[in-house]
Amino acid sequence: MIFCVAIDGPAAAGKGTVARAVAAHFGFAHLDSGLLYRVVGKKVIEGADAIVAARALQPEDLAADGLRTAPVAQAASKVAAIPEVRDAFLEFQRQFARRDGGAVIDGRDIASVICPDAEAKLFVTASPHVRAQRRLEELSQRFEGLTFEKVLSDVIARDKADSERETSPLVQVPDAVVIDTSDMAIADAVNAAIAVVSDRLR
Length: 202
What we know:
Layout (H helix, E strand, L loop, with lengths): L3 E5 L6 H12 L2 E4 H13 L4 H6 L14 H10 L3 H15 L5 E5 L2 H5 L5 E6 L2 H12 L8 H17 L12 E4 L5 H16 L1
Parallel strand pairs: 1-3, 1-4, 2-3, 4-5
Helix pairs in contact: 1-9, 2-4, 7-8
């Protein structure tokens, strides 16, 4: 069976959590496309050229340590604006989407660029303040001295960079079902997503 679930949305909205749960529920394969850019961002921090790193990406690179840090996230946002980097990942993601057995891909441009013909499209979002609080709770366990104001500023800056870049900006496509998780428990968001996918499967 060929069936793709495309999930887009801003940082810390919960799309990764929803994507993993949806994939597990239906037995689909899952790809967090943001990890592709985090791998390259981390390598750029370490001194590599972004385009060279993107073209040399190996599947095992997605399991590298340190991909979830704030500096890597910022670097990932910058390299994601490079057309040659996005081109290097385009075919990989499209082949993943059309794999037999179903696929769930989450990112910023999945429904708009990578898989415009996806069978199910979701846009998972939340208010900047809610997303900043979630990110603060996540990062404060690993990094001391973080403040809500700093994290909120980073979230807003990331949204601006993702939405205003020339190449494949973050957009909500017209036929995507919106799930606003600002006031939702994660279980409710997951159930809403599963309901959408179940409907499309029928």
